[in-house]
Design a protein that fits this description.
3-stranded antiparallel sheet; 5-stranded mixed sheet
């Protein structure tokens, strides 16, 4: 469906009016109409896929005025919305999980153009298939594509994304995807395209964009109950009232109270200084999410069985002895944030009856007698008022673990030495600078090599090469290839006039690292380049035929590659043709761009920026924001990752 909207906003006391137009194929109404036609078993399968939050969508309209206002202030490089000079909103997978309830852990989905055996059809054909397909792998893949085509990852095509269809139906696809990250990536990519090409079409989920603003920016004159996921509480009328009230109170958007999330780690210092603590915390959080999913599934089973038994007895399934009508929000203990309308309308809730323990393995204590009733509030964690930043700790009983659901494994290892002590040990000038402290993946670094992480030192070639090896071997199953900076150094210094295929293979093939996947699956190639004491990163996108130069120095944007960069491109493409076992990469078919990236504030942090670009760059943009003011902390974090890596032969030196 084509929609057209106009934006009218006041930016100061004398309000000005600007007219813009956008189009989107976002269609929650169509999505909900199909879901209502699916039977209960199929809806249960959708919930088991952790897509059940989408079944609760009540906000069906896209408000173009707020969407245009947010797009104008969207920084695609840092992935944040700049509300003012002092306030901004970061768009992260955590927010997608909060609003839609989508998984925020797992692999990053790489959309490829490889055709599958399943022929691509129209959205209407997919709807017909979903109605008749039995519950199985084909139904799940078709539903994921349909959800992306209507709500989560919109394109301007009438029939949706063909490449996504073939990716989901490929033989190697597994549904262990970080779908929250995928929604963020597609939205950022769509806004980047909209801002650069001035097209009227916006790709990505605008439903998420508008709800993201009203959930994170609150006004005291409107109250909304906090639900999990957040989309349950927001209706079209409520969203309209919320936006109109802000315009009445302040004259324009962006003047409410910005609600900041509590960090997902026990402390900011630990999150930056220790990857092991972060991994343990993430594993525990995934365990809690799995246990909550088990509880919700059990409650639905109990509720459905009680309804069946009530019908068999001839009584009303919704009648419950001595259960007066009460407020749905009040019963579940929903707090009211400073934001939203009046409480939800009172509804009757039939508390599910108990079942025997044989029906539910490993769920002791759910219900042992006819009077044992577990209210829904027992498994929901309401959000409290947020006048100040508070830390929430969610815990579930160990008895809630099920042997039928795979549990994440927390790696048990020695507690690492305090990072300050480890850094002091590495940077101690009184100790032998030739002592080897890092030995992993065929590379060796001494105390003298690691000294470049201290203060305002430049990152050396040997450290950059070690980090490329580290990223290559740590990213198991990734479609990214990291090439040693020594290759770039030799090509730049030798200045070859002719680059024959045989000479390229003889000289430069040794700089390619071993990969866990075939080279034929490589999509992006990363090559750090050091010229005149300045690090840049060249990214070869083999899928979109694009060469990207990431330069933290900023300045004037270049439209063509230099002679040295052109030679490097020929060498890399020749190596990839050889490794992929055929085909041809014609350099003339590749486009050259310099994307907007965060800029360094001094002359010595270019190497750290190149490392962070390699770590977070994917599909033409950053998957995580990079703060130029945190370079000293990034230096220590990168150093800590290599020192405490389980593959570092000298790791025991930094353990208690």
């Amino acid at each position: 469906m084509h929609r057209q909207g106009r934006q009218q906003s006041a930016t100061d006391a004398s309000s000005t009016t600007s007219e813009c137009t956008l189009f989107t194929r976002c269609s929650p109404t169509r999505f909900l109409r199909l879901c209502s036609q699916l039977d209960e078993r199929k809806q249960e399968a959708i919930r088991d896929m952790n897509f059940g939050g989408l079944l609760s969508i009540t906000c069906k309209e896209v408000r173009h005025n707020i969407c245009l206002w947010l797009i104008e202030r969207f920084d695609v490089g840092l992935r944040k919305i700049q509300l003012s000079s002092t306030h901004h909103l970061e768009v992260t997978p955590n927010v997608v999980n909060e609003i839609f309830g989508l998984p925020m852990h797992g692999r990053i989905l790489q959309v490829s153009s490889n055709p599958s055996e399943h022929p691509f059809g129209r959205i209407r054909d997919c709807e017909d298939r979903l109605r008749v397909l039995p519950i199985g792998e084909e139904f799940r893949r078709a539903f994921i594509w349909y959800a992306c085509a209507t709500i989560l990852a919109l394109t301007s095509r009438v029939d949706g994304c063909r490449n996504l269809w073939h990716t989901l139906h490929g033989d190697e696809f597994r549904n262990d995807i970080n779908w929250a990250q995928f929604v963020v990536d597609e939205l950022v990519s769509g806004i980047r395209h909209f801002q650069q090409s001035q097209t009227a079409w916006v790709h990505g989920s605008l439903v998420f964009l508008q709800l993201f603003y009203v959930v994170k920016v609150r006004i005291s004159s409107v109250q909304v109950p906090v639900t999990m996921p957040s989309i349950v509480a927001w209706t079209d009328d409520l969203l309209k009232i919320r936006l109109q009230q802000e315009l009445r109170d302040y004259g324009s958007f962006g003047h409410g109270e910005v609600f900041e999330d509590v960090p997902n780690t026990p402390s900011d210092v630990e999150s930056e200084d220790s990857d092991e603590l972060r991994q343990q915390y993430d594993a525990a959080q995934r365990t809690i999410n799995d246990q909550l999913t088990i509880m919700q599934r059990v409650m639905r089973r109990l509720h459905s069985r009680r309804r069946s038994s009530a019908h068999a007895a001839g009584s009303s399934p919704n009648a419950f002895p001595s259960s007066p009508s009460f407020s749905h929000a009040a019963y579940h203990g929903f707090p009211f944030a400073e934001h939203g309308t009046s409480p939800l309308h009172p509804t009757n809730f039939a508390t599910p009856g108990p079942q025997t323990s044989q029906d539910i393995p490993n769920m002791q204590g759910v219900a042992d007698s006819a009077e044992d009733v577990m209210p829904l509030r027992a498994m929901m964690v309401p959000q409290a008022h947020r006048r100040s930043r508070t830390h929430r700790v969610r815990r579930m009983a160990q008895s809630l673990k099920s042997s039928f659901v795979p549990q994440p494994h927390t790696r048990q290892s020695a507690i690492p030495m305090d990072l300050k002590e480890a850094i002091a040990f590495v940077f101690n000038t009184d100790m032998d600078p030739s002592e080897e402290l890092v030995s992993l993946y065929g590379t060796h670094l001494t105390r003298g090599n690691l000294g470049c992480f201290e203060g305002s030192h430049w990152i050396g070639n040997e450290v950059m090469d070690a980090y490329c090896r580290f990223l290559q071997h740590e990213a198991i199953g990734s479609t990214e290839l990291f090439i040693s900076p020594y290759l770039a150094e030799i090509v730049v210094q030798s200045k070859p006039k002719k680059l024959a295929k045989d000479s390229i293979l003889n000289q430069y093939e040794r700089f390619l690292y071993d990969m866990a996947i075939p080279y034929g699956q490589v999509i992006e190639v990363f090559l750090p380049l050091l010229i005149k004491n300045h690090w840049t990163l060249i990214v070869f996108d083999l899928y979109k035929l694009r060469i990207q130069l990431l330069d933290s120095l900023g300045g004037r944007k270049k439209t063509h590659m230099t002679g040295a960069q052109n030679n490097l491109a020929k060498v890399v493409l020749c190596l990839m043709v050889h490794k992929k076992g055929g085909g041809e990469f014609n350099l003339e078919r590749f486009s050259f761009v310099m994307p907007d990236v965060p800029s360094q504030t001094n002359e010595h942090d270019c190497g750290v920026f190149a490392m962070k670009f390699m770590e977070h760059w994917s599909s033409g943009g950053l998957t995580k924001s990079i703060d130029p003011t945190q370079m000293s902390k990034y230096r220590l974090k990168i150093l800590g990752n290599m020192l405490l890596s389980q593959h570092n032969a000298h790791r025991t030196m930094f353990q208690k």
